[in-house]
Amino acid sequence: MLIVEIVMILMTAILLWHAGEEQSPSFGLIFWVTASLFGFSKEILAIHFTHFYAFSGFTLWLFGVPVVYLLFWPNIIYVALRWSENATAESFLASTSPHQLYPLIFLTMAVIAIMFEAFGSQYQMITWNIGSNLVLWGKVPVFVPFSYGIMGILFLYALRETWRAIIDPLKRLFRLMIWVPILILTHTGAMFVIKVGIDIFSGAIKLH
């Protein structure tokens, strides 16, 4: 799927420029580096350890994961952030109470998940191996939109806490990189709990 990879690269260039104009070049750099590390590490865990799903059809690979996923996660998290800020006229980093932004960020990430996973399964870019009682298109487990939403919320929470506590860009970068393993473990645990909960709920419905 070379066209997908090219589109993702172009999208990244546009969004990085936008981040530099709206915030600062250092914000864009720190955001993309740390969100890439978070997202790509999560993919490596899913492919090589939990074996939740498998990729195929991509051109460039790194550690068994399509290189495009270095760009995918920061891109969609940034889109969800800006969309939510525009909808509420609130600044996520500057606001003293950004709680109204979190549901919108979650919902935007979930909508992106539904669209992208449908596309990925349609063109056999992603094959899910994990069983679930409830599935969407292409045997995509119904907990996947929750996964996307929680990914966005976790990363942006860490970003905001770091940005408000530290001024120096290098220290911000270092602090967020320390956050990454914590975010991965939290996300993995949350997904396990949600999957079990959905399976129990769907099983109870079938019994009735």
Descriptive overview:
With 208 residues, this protein is mainly alpha-helical. It is 72% helix and 5% strand. The chain has six helices and four strands. The strands form two sheets. A two-stranded antiparallel sheet has the order 1-4. The protein has a two-stranded antiparallel sheet with strand order 2-3. Helix 3 crosses helix 4. The radius of gyration is 17 Å and the shape is globular.
| Fraction of residues in helix | over 70%
Distance between the termini: 43 Å
Query: Radius of gyration over alpha carbons?
Result: 17 Å
Discrete helix count = 6
Low-confidence stretches: none
Q: In percent terms, what proportion of residues is strand?
A: under 5%
Q: Can you list the strand order of the major beta sheet? A: 1-4
Secondary structural class = mainly alpha
Instruction: Tell me, rounded to a whole number, the average pLDDT.
Output: 88
Shape: globular
Question: How many distinct domains?
Answer: 1
How many beta-strand segments?
Answer: 4
Key traits:
single chain, 208 residues, mainly alpha, two-stranded antiparallel ribbon, two-stranded antiparallel sheet, 6 helices, 4 strands, globular
Task: Describe the secondary structure blueprint for this structure.
Layout: H1 2-22, H2 25-50, E1 53-55, E2 61-62, E3 65-66, H3 69-88, H4 101-122, E4 126-128, H5 144-165, H6 169-207
Antiparallel strand pairs: 1-4, 2-3
Helix pairs in contact: 1-2, 1-3, 2-3, 2-6, 3-4, 3-5, 4-5, 5-6
